[in-house]
């Protein structure tokens, strides 16, 4: 990370927001351009992470003691090692895409990694780790950012409901 010469001021705009992080206080973030959020989401889907998340939620929300649930989570993660690694790397990419630090900038850039979201995410996580961020802090942030990034994208159904680009729709609007 490199220190900023002047602190960033959070604009009064819905694309900018804060996340409370234990040990760090209020942290500043921004939504990236929609094309970057969409590419990030595409990697999430193609990596099988959505299925992994559904299995983990089922274990966490199921019946049983805390120890049994933890063992169940570890079993699911063990069955999906590659997806678990991808989840971490794409979590790091989400942090890098949305970074809007008040006093510092992340040195890793998506462009510097030839737009490889996994390599970019790994560099972001390493950089944060080197600056004292804990796994828990990173997970808190990427969990919140995942929700924000997904909410920021317009679904196919929403887009279709707003505008009909079919031949029939074009004829109606003429």
Describe this structure in words.
The chain has one domain. The radius of gyration is 19 Å and the shape is globular. The chain has a two-stranded antiparallel ribbon with strand order 1-4. With about 170 residues, the chain is mainly alpha-helical. The protein has helices spanning about 35-45, 50-60, 65-80, 80-100, 115-130, 135-150, 155-160, 165-174; strands at about 1-5, 15-20, 25-30, 105. Helix content is about 60%, strand content about 10%. Strand 2 and strand 3 form a beta hairpin. It has eight helices and four strands.
Rg value: 19 Å
Low-confidence stretches: none
Query: What's the SSE pattern?
Result: EEEHHHHEHHHH
Strand content: 5-15%
Distance between the termini: 54 Å
User: Can you count the helices?
Assistant: 8
Quick gist of this model?
The protein is mostly helical and 174 residues long. It is 60% helix and 9% strand. It has 8 helices and 4 strands, in the order βββααααβαααα.
Reconstruct the topology from this structure:
Blueprint: E1 2-3, E2 16-21, E3 25-30, H1 34-46, H2 49-61, H3 66-79, H4 81-98, E4 104-105, H5 117-130, H6 135-152, H7 156-162, H8 167-173
Antiparallel strand pairs: 1-4, 2-3
List keywords for this structure.
174 residues, mainly alpha, two-stranded antiparallel ribbon, 60% helix
């Amino acid at each position: 990370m490199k220190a900023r010469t002047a602190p960033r001021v959070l604009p009064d705009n819905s694309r900018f927001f804060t996340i409370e992080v234990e040990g760090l206080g209020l942290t500043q973030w921004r939504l990236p351009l929609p094309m970057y959020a969409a590419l990030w989401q595409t990697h999430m889907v193609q990596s099988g992470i959505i299925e992994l998340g559904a299995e983990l939620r089922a274990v966490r929300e199921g019946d049983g003691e805390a120890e049994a649930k933890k063992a169940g989570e570890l079993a699911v993660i063990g069955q999906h090692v590659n997806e678990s690694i991808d989840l971490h790397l794409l979590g790091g990419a989400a942090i890098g895409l949305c970074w809007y630090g008040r006093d510092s900038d992340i040195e890793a850039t998506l462009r510097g990694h030839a737009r490889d979201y996994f390599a970019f995410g790994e560099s972001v996580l390493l950089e944060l780790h080197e600056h004292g961020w804990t796994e828990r802090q990173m997970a808190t942030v990427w969990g919140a950012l995942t929700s924000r990034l997904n909410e920021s994208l317009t679904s196919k159904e929403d887009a279709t409901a707003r505008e009909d680009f079919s031949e029939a729709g074009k004829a109606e609007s003429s």
